[in-house]
Amino acid sequence: MKLTIGEISDHVGGQVIGDLNCLISGVSEIQDSDVGTITFLSNPLYKKYLSQTKAEAIFVKDKKILNGKNGIIVKNPQLAMAKALELFYPIKNKKPSIHKSSIISSKSSFGNNVHIGAGVVIMDDVKIGDNSIIEANSVISENVLIGSECHLYPNVILYEKTKICNNVIIHSGTVIGSDGFGYVTENTNHYKIPQTGNVIIEDNVEIGSNCSIDSATIGSTVIGESSKIDNLVHIAHNVKIGKSCLITAQVGVSGSTTIGDFCIFGGKVGIAGHLKIGSNSVFAAKSGVTKSLPANKIYAGYPAREINEHNKKQAIINKIEKLYYNQNKFKTNISEK
């Protein structure tokens, strides 16, 4: 498949600089580009590759940096790249079908154009909406609701009473609705608290592979609309996550914590239980959240604190280490004399 720069520009809403009819056959990285492709420059750190790129055209914000090369001027080069990838690598929709090896309860019901893969198990009173895809070996337990335009990749497990809204993507190995870690300890015995609630995944959520989202003890664990969860994330029972949050790999959220809208969590952030995190909060990687924190701030460190305060404390620690090193060095020189 080949498209002109002009055709690509029309698709992404950009302005062409250079040859409108230059043919493009794909998308490549600027530091490892291929002849005949289009690339993008978003991060200034990659500007050094601009002069040596083999790509025929570049998505940029400012035409001045093109320096005679073909390009498309856009507000967001990374977004334009994503839209270009959609052109060259369109999603291949699976044909509506029900594989003969699947096991489906007669008490369940499907909408139109549903695809059920090999080895799928669907139990009683499950409802699946139009155009949804359930891939091989997934297990859908009793009383699960799956909306329209959803895609469950192979080996996804949904426990009973899970509610998946519309346009949700869940990747392989993820388990939703497993028991929360709830026990009452008396003397040396740990008495299990029945986990009687469920999980609700709202519209337009994407959940990566090998995640675990626990059922509520009572009520619902909720993942808010348009939030995106990376691989290897654990969300404990009764957690409430707001809309459009970004949660990257190996984040753990303890039980009954509430997270506001538009929050961002770097890798390996740990969040204690029964906390409230304000909207528009950003957490640097490996932060440890031990108390409730207000909205609209950037946090880092353990325990997590505002990043300016964290950086000041780190600077002081570095100075103390330097003083300690210099003091020991001075003592060594004195003893040698």
- From the alpha-carbon coordinates, what is the Rg to the nearest angstrom? 26 Å
- Tally of structural domains: 3
> How large is the share of residues in beta strands?
25-35%
Largest sheet strand order? 8-11-14-17-20-25-28-31-34-37-39-40
| Spatial shape | flat
Please name the CATH topology of the largest domain. Answer: UDP N-Acetylglucosamine Acyltransferase, domain 1
Rounded average pLDDT: 94
Please bin the fraction of helical residues. 10-25%
Q: Descriptors for this entry?
A:
UDP N-Acetylglucosamine Acyltransferase, domain 1; 40 strands; 3 domains; twelve-stranded mixed beta sheet; flat; alpha/beta; 337 residues; ten-stranded parallel beta sheet; Udp-n-acetylmuramoylalanyl-d-glutamate--2,6- Diaminopimelate Ligase, Chain: A, domain 1
Question: What this model shows, in words?
Answer:
With 337 residues, the protein is α/β, with parallel strands linked by helices. The chain folds into three domains: 3-88, MurE/MurF, N-terminal domain (Udp-n-acetylmuramoylalanyl-d-glutamate--2,6- Diaminopimelate Ligase, Chain: A, domain 1); 156-303, Hexapeptide repeat proteins (UDP N-Acetylglucosamine Acyltransferase, domain 1, 3 Solenoid); 311-337. Helices cover 15% and strands 29% of the residues. It contains three helices and 40 strands. The strands form six sheets. A twelve-stranded mixed beta sheet has the order 8-11-14-17-20-25-28-31-34-37-39-40, with helices on one face. A ten-stranded parallel beta sheet has the order 9-12-15-18-21-26-29-32-35-38, with no helix packed on it. Strands 10-13-16-19-24-27-30-33-36 form a nine-stranded parallel beta sheet, with no helix packed on it. The model has no long low-confidence stretch (mean pLDDT 94).
